[in-house]
């Protein structure tokens, strides 16, 4: 078989998961906001399935990593749960079993020649810090996060070379503080903007700590994982274009620009100032953000955002919301993944690649998540008991072709991670939609490689397809 799309040498072929979505709650000392939310309102989760067992990675990590190796992945991202690693949230003192567990999995990945990419925050704030301080609304919590980060760097920085501070911080802003899809289900634009700023600052402070501790000189690199949902205006009409620019500034560039360039987008800052909702900041903090930019960027890409100018005057009784400046546009004829309700638009991979190349200094970056969640995959099981997920293979191929085009034109992309190696728990959809190369039977915890798992093995071996 010839390889038509050959990717750069040492390309990462991998996949991503997170601690709270794979490990299960076994032996944790603290509850995250999601653990707590499930405890008080299991109805909020599909089939009332919570994060208690997840994919049992806490207990079966050896077998799981062996399977991941078997499907040819050369790199994997997971996250360290703050609620597992840290015993004393105020001092950052670690818990013995947490240390043992993360040492074990990191060593197991390395032993199997799989590069571990370790993320620190994947939506899983300890709920105590929300109750006591208001979570990400509080600057004290930023400092506690840095203590957690410091403990993690100290414990694992000798072996982990790729770190990321946050996964999809915009989802915290949107889900927890604007559109009420994650606990604490608040809709308050002013608070949302402070949280947006605080998480940017938390990321920069963790990067500052990493550099001060000297891990950069040791071959270590630190980045952030952002969910980019590039905006496409309904038309080239000036009003549509303006709405789309605002949406891009708010949902993408408000993290991308500080992370890569050390500064917030000027146009966004102006609007927030004019509207009297700008965050509270100090010169010293802004300097930390300016001086502590990322080494590499992870981009989670699932869907674009279609935008149009506002149809009706904004209803001010909602308080300030980004929706004051744009409407989402339901584009006729768009392709949709019906299970997740997300548009499928692979061309966007190319647009992201070129945007990073032209507007973000061509920083080294990789696709840190891309995937297709499908419900009811049992119906695709063949007589050998294998799920034939050709739709997923086609989805990946299409996205990779556009990524390839961007790389050919000089974008500095060094890898492609899918979501996710092994079917894992999702925030409120639980196990409704499956994304993995490896299926999990929830009743037996038996894991079986899907057809896409065999496919990625070949792609990884040939460095392309
Ligand atoms: C990303 C997250 O938003 O998408 C993952 O980083 C998440 O944590 C994934 O699971 C898929 O989304 P969902 O909501 O279908 O699980």
From TrEMBL:
The family database entries (Gene3D superfamilies) matched by this protein are listed as:
Glycosidases
Q: Name one Pfam family in it.
A: Glyco_hydro_1
Q: Which GO terms describe its molecular function?
A: hydrolase activity
Write down the InterPro entries for this protein, in alphabetical order: GH, Glyco_hydro_1
Q: Which UniProt keywords apply?
A: Hydrolase
What SUPFAM superfamilies does its record include? (Trans)glycosidases (SSF51445)
The cross-references to PANTHER family, in alphabetical order and at most eight, read: 6-PHOSPHO-BETA-GLUCOSIDASE GMUD, GLYCOSYL HYDROLASE
The protein, known as: Glycoside hydrolase family 1 protein
* Annotated source species: Clostridium cibarium
């Amino acid at each position: 078989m010839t390889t038509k799309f050959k990717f750069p040498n040492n390309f990462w072929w991998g996949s991503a998961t997170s601690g709270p979505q794979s490990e299960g709650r076994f032996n944790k000392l603290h509850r995250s906001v999601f653990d707590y939310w499930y405890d008080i309102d299991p109805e909020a989760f599909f089939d009332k399935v919570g994060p208690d067992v997840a994919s049992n990675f806490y207990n079966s990590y050896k077998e799981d990593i062996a399977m991941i190796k078997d499907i040819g992945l050369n790199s994997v991202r997971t996250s360290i749960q703050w609620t597992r690693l840290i015993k004393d949230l105020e001092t950052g003192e670690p818990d013995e079993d947490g240390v043992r567990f993360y040492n074990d999995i990191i060593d197991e990945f390395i032993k199997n020649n799989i590069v571990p990419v370790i993320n620190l925050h994947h939506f899983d704030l300890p709920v105590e810090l929300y109750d006591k301080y208001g979570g990400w609304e509080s600057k004290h919590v930023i400092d506690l996060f840095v203590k957690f980060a410091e403990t993690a760097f100290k414990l694992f920085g000798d072996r982990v070379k790729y770190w990321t501070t946050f996964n999809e911080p915009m989802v915290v802003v949107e889900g927890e503080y604007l559109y009420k899809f994650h606990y604490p289900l608040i809709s308050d634009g002013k608070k949302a903007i402070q949280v947006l700023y605080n998480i940017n600052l938390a990321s920069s402070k963790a990067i500052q700590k990493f550099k001060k501790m000297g891990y950069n000189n040791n071959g270590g690199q630190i980045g952030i994982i952002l969910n980019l949902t590039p905006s496409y205006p309904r038309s080239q009409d000036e009003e549509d274009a303006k709405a789309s620019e605002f949406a891009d500034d708010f949902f993408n560039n408000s993290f991308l620009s500080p992370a890569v360039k050390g500064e917030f987008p000027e146009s966004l800052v102006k609007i927030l100032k004019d509207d009297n909702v700008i965050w509270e900041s100090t010169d010293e903090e802004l300097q930390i953000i300016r001086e502590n930019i990322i080494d590499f960027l992870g981009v989670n890409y699932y869907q674009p955002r279609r935008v149009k100018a506002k149809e009706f005057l904004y209803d001010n009784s909602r308080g300030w919301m980004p929706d004051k400046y744009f409407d989402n546009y339901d584009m006729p004829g768009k392709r949709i993944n019906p299970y997740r309700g997300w548009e499928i638009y692979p061309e966007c991979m190319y647009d992201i690649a070129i945007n990073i190349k032209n507007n973000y200094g061509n920083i080294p970056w990789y696709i840190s998540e891309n995937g297709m969640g499908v419900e009811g995959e049992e119906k695709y099981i063949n007589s050998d008991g294998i799920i034939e997920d050709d739709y997923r293979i086609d989805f990946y191929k299409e996205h990779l072709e556009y990524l390839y085009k961007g790389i050919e034109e000089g974008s500095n992309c060094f890898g492609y991670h899918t979501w996710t190696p092994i079917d894992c728990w999702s925030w409120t959809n639980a196990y409704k939609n499956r994304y993995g190369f490896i299926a999990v039977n929830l009743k037996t915890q038996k894991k079986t490689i899907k057809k896409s798992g065999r496919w990625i093995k070949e792609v990884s071996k040939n460095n392309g397809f």
